[in-house]
Amino acid sequence: MVDVSEHGAGTALETGTAGEPVIACEQVVRSYPMGSAMVQAVRGIDLRIARGEFAAITGPSGCGKSTLLHLLGAVDVPTSGRVLVNGRDTASLSDREATDFRLRHIGFVFQRFYLMPTLSASENVELPLAEAGMDKRARKARARELLGYVGLGDRLEHRPTQLSGGEQQRVAIARALSNEPALLLADEPTGELDAETGVRLLELFGRLHRDGRTLVFVTHDAVVAQAAQRVIRLHDGRVSSDSRSTIASGA
Amino acid sequence: MMAWATLRRHPARTTLAVLGIAVAAALLLDMVMLATGMSESFRSLLLTRGYQLRVSPKGTLPFDSEATIDGAGAIVRALRANPDIKAVSPTLGATLTIDGSRIPSAFTLGLERDVQGDYTLEAGSDITRADSGTTVPLPRIVASQTFLTRAGYVVGDTITISSGLNAQLRTAARSSRVVISGMGRFIYVPGETPVMALDLALLRQLLGPSYRDRMSLAMAESRRGDSASVEAVRSWIATTQPRVTAISTETAIRQVEERLSYFRQLAFVLGAISLGIGFLLVATLVTLSVNERRGEIAVLRAIGTQRLGVLHQVFLEGLLLTSAGIVGGLALGLVTAQWLNGILRDFPGLPSAFDFFVWSPNAGWRALALLLTSGTLAGLLPAWRAASIPIARALREKAIG
Fold this sequence. Notes:
The structure holds two protein chains of two kinds. Chain A is α/β, with parallel strands linked by helices.
């Protein structure tokens, strides 16, 4: 696991014991307007994800996977029900508190990487560190360390356009890890990658899991989902199955 | 860092926007210079030689008519006797003919050399004083560049000037041979008018006995330059000299400003339009940029950038655009002001020293403040919209590539 002592990000979430829920959803419903109609993307989900778990949320397109992931990541709040992340009800947080919560406790990886195209790999990783108030020298060192961890130690000054899709996603993972979050959320992380690169990325997720991370990723690909320790299937906004694999994660 | 990087992402678009803002800024600067420049120019024109008061025949403005003041000697003596008056410069204007010249006649100013405030000597030597007639063979005059060019003379030439020309007999009542000893820049005379200056006493002699004690106007300098002292002297002249009208620089400027109010209104309207164009350019470009980066901004928010941070970055984009436009606009504005000034100064009947566009730090700061305020306001709305992007919805839309 990458050392975090440098910026003292130790929190209750991080210092908790394995097995206790990092995420708890209680009858979560999320509706949003689409044209004149209200679409219910999530329809009463109850879910618990324990510390150190590696879970995949899967299901067909439009089943509410990404909406659920946004709710777990505190970028969205449920229409009804509760989402508790480390015991905090995300709906009770103000915008400022929710932003700070995401900064310090949640790492996001997106399907299309969403790196800042004008910044180098190192600068992209530094963004959340700068937000957290880390000084420039320490930021640089931390970005170098993280990019080394994801296998891009020789790509520090490359811009996103100079990197392959797999490399960009690794930069995005390094960025997500920058503030040593307790929870890493990924939305279709292999969706834009070819099969071979996707496999290598899943191996990296496996390594992160073995290093003690709590990982939740969303995928529509049932095969990719098998890389996770736990597979939660959604159908029409509800959990249709929740199974645990005996195969070692990412192996 | 991010704001600058964002602007650099589309160099052609940013350059065009900066150029657009620069043009708007230049126009605004020019309009601010025009709005204040004419009265400033008029003020400095009137105060070129320090005279704050003009004394003209009763009910007239200086050189507004051909009227002259009789009993000039007594009036000038009375003014000079006042301890609050530092200097008095009597002036007589007339048209004299020039024998054998390519121009038949020229406007002539009769002045007292040591106190004259009508021209600055640019080449050669000054006019002869009345009391130095015994030391030089011929009286000396100073002519304008236009006079020399159009009449075909150079400094050093001897000419004959006359008054009272009888056109049929081609004889003059009075003539004098004079030497063009210098070339002068005449402050109040239009550049296209050929003009010469000579000693007041000589001009009076040439004009005949009826002009022996006449002047067209006198300029007076108050010993103390503050408005109250100048007004006190003006009031004293008005009371003690019933045959003249005394006008102070401040009053003259007020009168001119009233006449120039159309110019100021035009400048105000054009300035407001250019400010509006600058505002719209910044607002449009920053809004466009925000719309293009909705997903990117949502990601920034998702990974922990506070609303204020997004607002700050987008706002900074607007400010950077405005600032770059201002720098370009300042240079462009000064160049265009000089060019336009050159065109307008050729307008017939204007004193050659009169400027329409006058650079002053005040005008510069005023334009700068207006533009910065406009740029700030223009950047605020898109910045607020960017900071308020609903994160989950923008991520769902996957707006960026």
